[in-house]
Every structure is written in structure tokens, then in C-alpha cells.
Amino acid sequence: MSSALLTRFPQISKLQKLGNLGFGGFSRIFSLGSQFVVLLLLGKLLEKSDFGDFMIVFALMRVLSLGLGSGLATLLVYHISRNASEEQEDRLHRSVGLLGLVLAGITALVLTLAAPWIAEAFDKPGLAFWIGWMAPFFLFSTMLTVSCGALDGRGRITRSIVFSEFLPNLIRLMLLPALLLLGYGNLAVVAVMLVSVVMPWLFMLPMFKRNLRAGFARLTGWDLSYSGKLTLHSFAAMQMQGIDMLVVGWLFSSTAAADYAIASRVAALVPFLQQIIVKGFMSKAGKAIHENAHDTLQTEIDKSRYTAALLVTATAVAAMIAYPILMLVMGDFGGSMPLFTLLAAGAIFRSYFPGADALIRVAGHANFSLGIMLTSAAMLLVMPFILSEWIGTYAVALSMLVSGMVLNPVMARFIHRNLHVTLIDRSSLIPMMIGLTGLAIAFAGGQMITSWVAGTLVLTASALPVFLVWRKREHAT
Q1: Closest CA to 359 of 295, 288, 291, 303
Q2: Integer angstrom CA distances of residue 31 from 24, 242, 282, 366
Q3: Considering only CA atoms, which of 150, 252, 157, 154 is closest in space to residue 206?
Q4: What is the arithmetic mean of pLDDT over 297-303?
Q5: What span, in angstroms and rounded, lies between the C-alpha atoms of 420 and 413?
Q6: Which ranges of 331-420 does DSSP label H, i.e. alpha helix?
Q7: CA dist list (Å): 423 to 237, 293, 372, 473
Q8: Angle at 162 between CA 286 and CA 354, to 5 degrees
Q9: What is the rounded CA–CA span in Å between residue 179 and residue 168?
Q10: Which of 14, 193, 196, 274 could form a disulfide with 171 if both were Cys (CB 3.0 to 4.6 A apart)?
Q11: Containing H/E element for 469?
């Protein structure tokens, strides 16, 4: 559709945007549901101890692939979002992609060779099998994440979601039930996980080879330094279903890790829809900061905050309703229910600070962002070792909740001082506290369904004031 036609008929442009948003939302919802089903299938396919070992190794691969991939992808977002030409985009994509391929390839080789020693360090011999066979998954997952950075930089969020989440989850959803029916074992699970990232990356490969005559972009020392900081930042940011699982795997048995894996994996789905808001926000924020458009940036922040809070609250309510049903199907994981509420509380709190860290990174304040994430990661690493003797795996969830409550306001203050915009306003505090109260009621009740229902109702009530403010702002704009 030509730009002239869109200019002449603006309603067509609006419909196109709504269509893109609708498909992006559908992709997110599909991925949300499919991850839930995949978790159920893996719990049925594997013995509980094997499931715990697999989730520990999957967390390790997730930390490494998303850490390295996101660090390099954000470098692409930084340059491309600042109106880079198509030729510059292709050159940057190739240079950053090849750098990622080399670094990920070396890391995958090291993981394969060091698998026995890593398993011995965790005192879990079963980890060696999973680490050795999952190393290729790490390689292709990293390359897929890097390639999606080029799409994010152009604001092509729907395509990015399709390749990074929709297709991988669709492939797993299609193949894992066959494994369950045919009775295949652990190695077949590895094969499915590998195929789920190789196929989407192959679909994106033409982007990498497009416009070959343009050659490669020269990566400066600043680029490498910025990307290195972002990579270290990304490693530290992989706390939910990443560093937390590694800490649990180190401190507790494989069966305890399996319980935590269920609770944390479902809790990780709670902010799932928020990510589409943050991805779109990053490309708009980069341009607004570049043009010193403070009013535009504030408007985008306000929209992101209330939209994210609504989406996260709605997802948390759905997860609260579904969790007891999931436990009935899976069986021996009922003790993870209160653990889930503690993990979900952190997601609810952070939803009122959406894109805080992303905004700081896009603004170029890599040092401050890195300091925040390293502090948060340090709290996650230290607090469980101190508290685990008394409260078990709750120590890991509590450390993430505390770090979020301490560090998000610090980031909000930094953003206000340096970018002259407000990340959170007073109208957000009341619904936030109502939502956290609902989760506290469910947590205090343990596995009691009455407390779970009461907590779900209170959590649902917290969405009403957010919705009213959101509607008022939508009408105003």
C-alpha cells in the first residue's frame, strides 16, 4: 500500500495499525497459551527429577542465549531506531550477526566440553546429558535473538514476535504431543527444542543475506563497549527462569527445582503481554530522545504504564484461575501454588514501571543500567544463600520481589532527573497496592482454594481504577 494512499485515506492507515496490533496481540496470547501447554507436556514426558534437571539446563541456556543475543540485538535497536537507511540496517545486521555467531559458537563448544564438570559442581550427574545436547539450542537461539533486533529497531514488532516466540512455540506445541503419544525419551525432547529455534532462524536468514553488495558495517570501539555492557546487563537481567533456576539448582534437590520450575515458569508468563508494549515503546522512545521531544516521550510513558498494568493484571488473574487446574492435571506439584503468588507479586509491581530499564538503555546510559542490573542480580545470588535454611525456595522469590521494590523507584528517580519525564504517578499507587494485597491473601492461604479465590477477586478489583484512568487518557489523546 503506497504512502500516498495512506495520506489520502488516513482511516486505512489506522485500520492497518489496528490489524498489526491485533495480530501482535493474538501472537502473544497464542504464545502464552502454548507455553502453558508445553510446560504441561514436559512435566508429563519427563520424570520429575529429569524435569528438574532439564529446567536447570534450560535456564542456563536461556541466560546465555538471551544475555548474549539481547546485548547484541539492543545495539542494532540503538542504531536502526535512529532512522538508519535500509543499506545501513543490512550492513549492521551482518556485522553484529557474525560477531554473535562467533561468540555463541565458542560458548557452545565450551559448554559441550565442560558439561561433566558443570554437572559435578551442581552435584547433579544428570545435568551433563542435558548440557551437552542442548548446546546447539543455545547457538541458534542466540542467532535468532540477534536477528530479531533488526526488526525491533524498525518497530516491526509483529514480525519480531512471530519469529522469536510464535513459531518456536507453535513447533513445540505440534511436536511434543507426538513424543508423548509415541513414548520417546529425553533425546527426542532435545531434538524438538532445537528444531523450534532452527526453523524460525532459517526463515529469517534471507534478511541476513539481503543487499550483499553493501558489505559490512564497521563496528567502532564505542559499539563494542556499549554492546559488551549491554550483554553483561542482559546476563544480569535474566533473573526469572534464568539465574533464579540456577540458584535453586545449586541450593536444592532436582525435585525441589522441578516444583520451583513450574511456579516460576507460570509466573514468567504473567508479564508476557507487557513485553509487546516495551518493544514498541523502545523504538518510539529512541526517536523521541534523539529529537528531545519530552512531551512525546511522556505521553508514550503514560500509555505504556497503564496498558502494561492492565495486561499484566489480566494475565495474573488468568494464571491464578488456571493454576489449581494445572496442579490437578500434573499431580505432584501442588506445593508450588503459594510460591507462584510470591513470584507474581514482583511482576505486578514491575508492571507499573514498564520499560524503565529499556528507557535508560535506549537513552545511552549503559553504565547506570548495568549497575542496577548487577545490584539486582547480586541480591538474587546473596539473599537465598542467607535465607534458604529458614524459608526454602521462597527465599529466591522473595529476593526478586525485594530487589524490584527497591530498584524500580531508583530507576524512576534517575529517569526523572536525566530525561525530565515521570515514570510513575501517584494515581498508580492505589491499584498497585490492591493487586499486591490480593496476591498476599492467596499466599497466606497456601493451597486453600477459598484464599485463592479471595485473592483472585481482590487482584481483579485492582484493574478497575487502572482501566478508568486508561480510558480517560485514551479519550484525551
Answers
A1: 288
A2: 11, 19, 21, 31
A3: 150
A4: 81
A5: 10
A6: 337-351, 356-362, 366-391, 394-419
A7: 20, 15, 16, 15
A8: 40
A9: 17
A10: 196
A11: helix 463-476
